[in-house]
């Protein structure tokens, strides 16, 4: 069969479709857009901020026709944010591998044979140089990640991290950490150092969670989120799709996040990047349409949260990423690596921003549950690891 015939067949079919008389086609369209036929996405897109969503309501939004969901996600996004602004957050793994936990997607777990080898914590100079490089490339948030279950027995490393928080905050960046479980005291110490946000993902629904992690409970995760929020730190919490969960598990995750006493300030939506050697190495990648469904649903039910197009972005083309931004994503991770998995190059992201007319979102220092002013340190109060850049030092002494 010639290429022309292959192309022309759908046209012939659609012409056959056109034989329906025009008035009756218009009537059908009109009938489908009457208020009675509104999708759940349309019905819930204009409501007030809520923390009492039911699972059925979220399921009905999630199941809305995709283009309708995308449209209403975009509408809610525009009502709550400048749609041109996308936050750039750079994530650096400051302590890689050797983790005692058994998260089945993670190449950093010491239980699986992957190419990731356990390393010592990075030294201060390397961390602060990476933060400065991220800032120079347009990032407004810098996140330090460590492959730890928690901070027990890590006092001296924790103190170093507190110093790094002070320095990076003083560079004029938002600072985030992801260091495992936090108790109340540790959360307060991070807040006092000037931490903007703490990342602690729920990963998936409470029901599916035991199939992915057995070394810490869902409630322990929620406790860390509670400790961070009570200390006045913004919380970044989301999950991963493509772990083998069902649609109802994705809805379950969104239900838990959207019924927290305070919605997370940011909600990362990750698509699994299956890594060789992990128990999930053979998982099929998710499609961009599944990402759009998650992003738009999250946008409608948590209208003021930053929704972050996170791991797996590297697999999506610029047009696919554009649809995710349209659906309500307004944050990305930048930097060549996302902890240990590949990520988009800074330069490619710059080109994408230029092409789509996006601009980096400025930092927001007035956040956290109590909106307390976070400290800004004068150079004389800075920890030893701080080395002022020449231009900064000149302006301080002037
Ligand atoms: S996801 Fe975090 S806690 Fe789980 S194994 Fe990886 S590094 Fe450890």
Automatic annotation (TrEMBL):
Pfam families for this protein: BATS, Radical_SAM
Keywords: 2Fe-2S, 4Fe-4S, Biotin biosynthesis, Iron, Iron-sulfur, Metal-binding, S-adenosyl-L-methionine, Transferase
GO molecular function, a single term: 2 iron, 2 sulfur cluster binding
Domain Radical SAM core residues, every copy: 84-304
Key word 4Fe-4S present: yes
Chain segments carrying region Disordered: 364-398
Documented EC number(s): 2.8.1.6
GO biological process: biotin biosynthetic process
Biased composition (Basic and acidic residues): 388-398
Keyword ATP-binding: no
Class of this enzyme: transferase
Known pathway: Cofactor biosynthesis; biotin biosynthesis; biotin from 7,8-diaminononanoate: step 2/2
Cofactor: [2Fe-2S] cluster; [4Fe-4S] cluster
Residue ranges of the TM segments: none
Cellular component GO terms, alphabetical: mitochondrion
InterPro entries: Aldolase_TIM, BATS_dom, Biotin_synth/BioAB, Biotin_synthase, Elp3/MiaA/NifB-like_rSAM, rSAM, rSAM_sf
HAMAP family: BioB (MF_01694)
Family assignment from sequence similarity: Belongs to the radical SAM superfamily. Biotin synthase family.
Name of the featured protein: biotin synthase
Organism whose genome encodes this protein: Mucor circinelloides f. circinelloides (strain 1006PhL) (Mucormycosis agent)
């Amino acid at each position: 069969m010639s290429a022309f015939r292959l192309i022309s067949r759908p046209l012939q079919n659609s012409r056959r479709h056109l034989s329906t008389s025009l008035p009756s086609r218009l009537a059908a369209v009109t009938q489908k857009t009457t208020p009675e036929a509104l999708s759940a996405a349309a019905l819930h897109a204009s409501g007030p901020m809520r923390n009492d969503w039911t699972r059925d309501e979220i399921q009905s939004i999630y199941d809305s026709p995709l283009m309708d969901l995308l449209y209403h996600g975009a509408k809610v996004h525009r009502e709550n944010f400048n749609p041109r602004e996308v936050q750039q957050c750079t994530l650096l793994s400051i302590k890689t591998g050797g983790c005692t936990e058994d998260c089945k997607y993670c190449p950093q777990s010491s239980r699986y044979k992957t190419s990731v080898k356990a390393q010592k914590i990075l030294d201060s100079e390397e961390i602060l140089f990476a933060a400065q490089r991220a800032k120079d490339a347009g990032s407004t948030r810098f996140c330090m990640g460590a492959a730890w279950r928690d901070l027990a027995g890590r006092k001296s490393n924790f103190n170093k991290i507190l110093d790094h928080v002070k320095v990076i905050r003083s560079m004029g960046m938002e600072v985030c950490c992801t260091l495992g479980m936090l108790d109340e005291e540790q959360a307060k110490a991070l807040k006092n150092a000037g931490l903007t946000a703490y990342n602690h993902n729920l990963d998936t629904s409470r029901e599916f969670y035991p199939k992915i992690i057995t070394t810490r409970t869902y409630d322990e995760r929620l406790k860390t989120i509670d400790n961070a929020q009570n200390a006045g730190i913004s919380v970044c919490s989301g999950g991963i799709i493509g772990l083998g969960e069902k649609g109802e598990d994705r809805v379950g995750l969104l239900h838990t996040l959207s019924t927290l006493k305070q919605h997370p300030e940011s909600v990362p939506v990750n698509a699994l990047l299956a890594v060789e050697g992990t128990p999930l190495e053979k998982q099929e990648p998710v499609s961009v349409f599944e990402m759009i469904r998650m992003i738009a649903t999250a946008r409608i039910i948590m209208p003021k949260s930053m929704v972050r197009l996170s791991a797996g972005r590297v697999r999506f083309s610029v047009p696919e990423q554009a649809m995710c931004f349209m659906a309500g994503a307004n944050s990305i991770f930048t930097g060549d690596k996302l902890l240990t998995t590949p990520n988009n190059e800074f330069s490619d992201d710059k080109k994408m921003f230029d092409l789509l007319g996006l601009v980096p979102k400025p930092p927001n220092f007035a956040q956290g549950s109590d909106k307390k002013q976070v400290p800004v340190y004068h150079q004389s109060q800075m920890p030893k690891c701080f080395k002022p850049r020449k231009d900064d030092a000149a302006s301080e002494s002037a």
